[in-house]
Amino acid sequence: MLAEKYADRIAKIFAKYPDKRSGVMALLYLAQEEYGWVTPEALEEVAALCDIDPTQVQSIAGFYTMYSEKPKGRYWLQVCTDLPCALRGADEFYRQLCEYLGLSEEGGTTADGLFTVEPVMCLAACDKAPMLQCNFHYHENLDMEKMKALIEQWRAEASRSDGDRG
Amino acid sequence: MAHILLRNRDIADIWQFETYVAHGGYEGLRKAIKEHTPAEVIQIVMDSNLRGRGGAGFPTGRKWSFIPKDAPIKYVVVNADESEPGTFKDRELLEKNPHQVIEGAMIAAYAIQATAVYVYCRGEFWDLAHALEERIEEARRANLLGEDILGSGWSCNMYVHLGAGAYICGEESALLNSLQGLLGQPRVRPPFPAQMGGGLYYQPTVVNNVETLANVPWIVLNGAAAYKEIGTPESPGPKIFCVSGHVERPGNYELPLGLTFRELIYEHAGGIPNGKRLKGILPSGASGPVLRATDEVLDAPLTYESVAALGSTLGSASFILMDEDTDMVWAAAKMIHFFKHESCGKCTPCREGTYWLERIYERLLDGRGTPRDLELLESVPRQIQGLTLCALGDFACNPVLSTLQHFREEYERYVGLTDAVPQAAIAGA
Ligand SMILES: Cc1cc2nc3c(=O)[nH]c(=O)nc-3n(C[C@H](O)[C@H](O)[C@H](O)COP(=O)(O)O)c2cc1C
Ligand code: SF4
Ligand code: FES
């Protein structure tokens, strides 16, 4: 339960606003961090915390691109393919990345559940294209060489932490 | 010339509180509080002719003067949603020179006697927003915000709110709804944010762009007359130009308003790569009309008035450049895809119109387009323009109508009205 586990963080969120309802976005992030995605139970929990209806929380979760209403790969790669980046080769970069990970041209999640690749709109980094966000952190001025190195790094990181758990 | 806004280009670690203070930081806020009444601060900003840098170019001092003095609760909201394709200036300011934005926001807050400031950061600015909270904490420890600021008896806190990926939340009334935990859709106006009933939690609220506020400390310190010496009389001050697309040196350029397109593109940003010629210019991201890069355009000054006279807008000054090989139908399709994706769905003309426009572009790019589609591209915008709750509907029509106006022959090739072979899309459609 978020309420017990993160009492301090939740109190800090609510302290910012005169109305509990304003905490809904920060709490959805917290739920996503805890469960990996916004699960139906998470919607209920957030709704109870903010004192609003779960259907309202659900419509908010569905409205924004950064909340995920289904499980994603451990590394969620959001590649900008908007016009300024596309003028600097982002569409081709996206295609090559999907091919390298064995995904269809649309992207999706790899069979091992490690990577989800999605196209996204402008991320305010157009001067550093091609670029992407991985779990909300920026990686800029990319090419496939750099990308392969990053993927190897993430794979190694994932197998290390799996080893720790095992 | 030393930078006024991107001071990080001159002083690398100005993001640090001590460095910022050592270089005159927070002197503007001190001066405002110690030497001026709130009304005087509003007058100084009004006299400076500072115009909003978020897109609409509204006079900042006038916006502040609309706030009712007797309202017990008032807010300043900093618009850091920066999501217009081609725009990346607020991010550099907040990452590299954050205290100047905090200081500008606190001067605005003093001028309207605000009770709290919220900085609405787009969700993707995740790392930036968390760093900004630390910078705000530093300012709080120095009593530059919080309780009884600098012994003045006035108290005002500052908070960061993270969005979660929605372009429409940059529109000020949608932003306020989002901050309130409502669906991030625009509100019916009036009442406007500055009025009772229209702002954050329905209290009078000033919403300003990050870059707008970054101008304010300098104006208070150096005076309105000095500010007006920069730029042109109608469009004074420095402006950050974001340059992207087909350009040798993409990036932010802080320059006085009034320089020409040619100077910005060729002298400062290094011109077009591979010896190519420039074909299309989007001076305000995806939301303003595209211009054909003629000599007349290239020699025009970059002011709000002159870009409007050319048939486009200076907006947030996000220059997306497209060389001679760019397929303009493909470029328009990209922008329509953006607006279709970002339409909040509240009004039918925008929701349905962008959907139909996207279908038409898909047909064109697939080679299934007919001359009838070109007629549709002209008639669908007529059912959107002026009929929607917010400006996104109008924005969505701009790429369609302006590419049709300036590059009609490219559309005609797609539907077989001319014999010439369609140009291949530069990066694959
Ligand atoms: C669809 C839409 C998106 C907008 N996005 C932004 C944005 O990302 N940042 C911004 O400062 N203003 C944006 N605006 C403009 C704001 O509504 C508002 O005019 C601005 O924040 C006012 O600040 P200023 O007067 O300092 O420019 C947008 C407007 C519309 C219609
Ligand atoms: S014009 Fe579009 S984005 Fe704006 S309120 Fe209407 S549907 Fe939403
Ligand atoms: S278009 Fe990709 S970051 Fe702006």
Number of strands of chain A: 5
Rg over alpha carbons of chain A: 18 Å
Alpha-carbon distance between the termini of chain B? 42 Å
Q: Uncertain runs of chain A with pLDDT below 50, 5 residues or more?
A: none
Amino- and carboxy-terminal Cα gap of chain A? 25 Å
**How would you sum up the major sheet of chain B?**
5 strands, mixed
**Low-pLDDT ranges of chain B:** 424-429
Bound molecules: flavin mononucleotide, iron/sulfur cluster, FE2/S2 (inorganic) cluster
Mean pLDDT of chain B: 96
Order of helices and strands of chain B: HHHHEHHEHEHEHHEEHEEHHEHHHHH
Strand line-up of the largest beta sheet of chain B = 6-5-9-7-8
How would you spell out the order of helices and strands of chain A?
A: HHHHHEHHEEEEH
The biggest beta sheet of chain A reads: 5 strands, mixed
Strand order of the largest sheet of chain A: 2-3-1-4-5
Structural classification of chain A: alpha+beta
Classification by helices and strands of chain B = alpha/beta
Strand segment count of chain B: 9
How many helices of chain B in DSSP terms?
Answer: 18
Annotate the secondary structure layout:
The complex is a heterodimer of chains A (166) and B (429).
Chain A: H1 2-5, H2 7-15, H3 24-35, H4 40-50, H5 54-63, E1 75-80, H6 83-86, H7 90-100, E2 108-109, E3 115-120, E4 132-134, E5 137-139, H8 144-165
Parallel strand pairs in A: 1-3
Antiparallel strand pairs in A: 1-4, 2-3, 4-5
Helix pairs in contact in A: 3-4, 4-5
Chain B: H1 17-22, H2 27-35, H3 38-48, H4 60-65, E1 75-80, H5 89-96, H6 98-112, E2 116-121, H7 126-141, E3 157-162, H8 172-179, E4 205-209, H9 210-222, H10 224-228, E5 238-245, E6 251-256, H11 261-268, E7 278-286, E8 291-292, H12 295-298, H13 304-309, E9 318-323, H14 328-342, H15 348-365, H16 371-382, H17 392-406, H18 408-414
Parallel strand pairs in B: 1-2, 1-4, 2-3, 5-9
Antiparallel strand pairs in B: 5-6, 7-8, 7-9
Helix pairs in contact in B: 2-6, 2-9, 3-6, 5-6, 6-9, 14-15, 14-17, 15-16
Bound molecules: flavin mononucleotide, iron/sulfur cluster and FE2/S2 (inorganic) cluster.
Residues 80, 82, 84-85, 122-126, 129, 131 of chain A line the site of FE2/S2 (inorganic) cluster (FES).
